[in-house]
Amino acid sequence: MNKPSYVFAIFSTTSDAYEMRNKTCDEAKGTWLCSGCASPKKTSEIHHVVIKQKGINTSLNFISGVGMGVIREDLLQLLSEFGVSNDLILSTLLNEDGSKISGFQAFRPKKEIIIRGNSASSYRKCEVCGRHLYHPLGDWYVLRSQYSPGIIFGNQFKGLIVSLEIANQVKKLSSKQIAITKLPLLDAARDNLNLDLSLDVKSYQ
Ligand SMILES: [Zn+2]
Predict the structure, then answer these.
(1) What is the pLDDT of residues 99-114, one digit of tens each?
(2) If you measure from the C-alpha of residue 41 to the centroid of ligand 1, how many angstroms do you get, rounded to a whole number?
């Protein structure tokens, strides 16, 4: 098999995201949510998240302010057919009355790749959990050294990094609220940051 030259980032562009219940938000800040960067702590188990307001119905969405994505069942099924659904850690979404929100689950990727940009990109490290917080400017790309064919990764926009084959199938499920962006795999970074920005969050279990 030829080495891929490109991967694809998939993420939601909607402003109509899921909203967590206030009480759940407060509990999360005391337990599984990092107070420095508002992302789940690496070692946290999150069985469910209580939602006060559902987001728009798209194959990929996110929970506002907590660094978790929301995936629809048909996209999860598609990833399962490619044998990569286990690359995501899933959490149940509940309504405020405790009933399950069917057809959607919250997710965190086991592994993430940072989408990189040019030297004007912003970068800092979370002073609490050490997570890399990177916003790419200019042309986006991914470092080849960070990517492994055969698995899917998360990206910093609460979405996914996938192969061409998966991206082509995702297009069929997708709506205007989903961006599918082609990213070259480069051997060297263009941001003058001499940093290994890989983030392996596979320490949940
Ligand atoms: Zn943090």
Answers:
(1) 999 999 999 999 999 9
(2) 7
